[in-house]
Amino acid sequence: MTAYVALGSNLKDRAAYLLEGLSRLSRLPKTRLLRLSSLYETEPLGPPQPHYLNLVAELETALPPRGLLEAMLAIERALGRERKERYGPRTLDLDLLLYGDLVLEEEGLTLPHPRLHERAFVLVPLCDLIPEGRHPLLGRTFAELLAGLDPSGVRPYVV
Predict the structure, then answer these.
(1) What is the pLDDT of residues 95-132, one digit of tens each?
(2) Which of 24, 90, 119, 128 is catalytic?
(3) Is 32 labeled as catalytic in the residue annotation?
(4) pLDDT < 50 positions in the chain
């Protein structure tokens, strides 16, 4: 199954956390990293905090959605993620955006990601990979969804 995972970091060496997160995702059983979006620097949601680095990874996986999510949460924990506040700073944030066209709502797991269509910092990198892909519930392309948002807080990151 093709899955899309958003990665973000805004603490310490942001790029190093993203690279380590990608490395660990690529080593998950029955999973391989296919493509990456460009890297973006984005303004944070919530309280004042450092800007994020964000990207989206395309994976091919035979892990079930819950298994992939649990592995992602374990990666976050291993890299020092603390879940103290909803929009607080983080070493690494991994969000399962899409798992094929699966629509799922269960405790702790909603697919597609419930706020995917509201977030330019997710849609901009997702559109690097699948601009003509369609949101499984809304039926609109990701490019169409992005056109309805203000992407000014999402800037290409140049090293």
Answers:
(1) 999 999 999 999 999 999 999 999 999 999 999 999 99
(2) 90
(3) no
(4) none
Supply the CATH number for residue 76's domain. Answer: 3.30.70.560
Give me the pLDDT at residue 30, please. 96
Domain span at residue 76?
A: 2-156
Q: What is the DSSP string of 106-121?
A: ETTEEES-TTGGG-HH
Cα dihedral: 98, 104, 109, 112 (round 10):
30
CA distance 31 to 33: 7
Number of domains observed in the structure of the chain? 1
* The one catalytic residue among 14, 24, 81, 119: 81
Q: Is 86 annotated in the active site?
A: no
State the catalytic residue, choosing from 95, 101, 134, 140.
95
pLDDT at 88: 78
Residue 155 bears catalytic tag: no
